[in-house]
Amino acid sequence: MNAIRSAIAIAIVVLVVGCGGSATGPARAPVSGKLTIGGKAVEGVEVHFVNPEYPQHGSFAVTDSDGGFKLVQGAVPGSNTVFFSKIEGEGMVTNPEEGMDAGQFEAMASAAKGKAAEPVAKQVIPSEYATSASKLTFVVPQSGADDAVFDL
C-alpha cells in the first residue's frame, strides 16, 4: 500500500513540476489598442503582432465592435511587424473538415457552372496591411502598451 502511495505522490510531483516549469520562449508584454479603417471601427478583424527575431512566437487578437483589441498572449518586446485580416463574402468555406480552401472551392464552383468563378470571399483589409509582409511596425516596450492605435 505504501508503494502505491509513493508512486502516486511521485506522479503528482512529476506532473506539477513538468507542467508548472518555466515558460518557453521569450518574455511577452501586454498590448492593447484600436483599429480603424478610414476612421471607422471594424469588428472581427484579426490583429497579428510578430517580432522578426521570434517569428514562431507571434500573438493575435480580434477587434470588438469599437475596433478595440487586446493581444491574447501579449507581444514580444521590441519592433513587431503588424498585420491584419478579415475575410468576408458569400460561399466562404468555413468548415475545415470539408477539406477545401477558398481557391479549391472557387475551382469547384467554376467547373460546376462551366464559366470563370467569381471570387467567393474578399479581404476587407487593404492588401499592404493584410499579410506578414506588411511594412507596418509597432515597438512594444518591456512594460507593454495600451496605445497601439492603427488607422488604415
C-alpha end-to-end distance: 67 Å
Q: Helix and strand string, N-terminal first?
A: HEEEEEEEHEEE
Q: Fraction of residues in helices? A: 10-25%
The unreliable regions are 1-9, 11-22, 93-97
The number of helices is: 2
| Beta-strand content estimate | 25-35%
For the report, how would you describe the main beta sheet? 4 strands, mixed
Number of E strands: 10
The 3D shape can be described as: globular
Explain how this protein is built.
The protein starts with a helix and ends with a strand. With 152 residues, it is α+β, with helices and mostly antiparallel strands. It has helices spanning 2-20, 102-113, and strands spanning 31-37, 40-41, 46-50, 59-62, 68-70, 78-85, 87-88, 122-123, 137-140, 145-151. A hairpin with a 2-residue loop joins strand 1 and strand 2 (40-41).
Essential attributes:
single chain; 152 residues; alpha+beta; 4-stranded mixed beta sheet; 10 strands; 20% helix
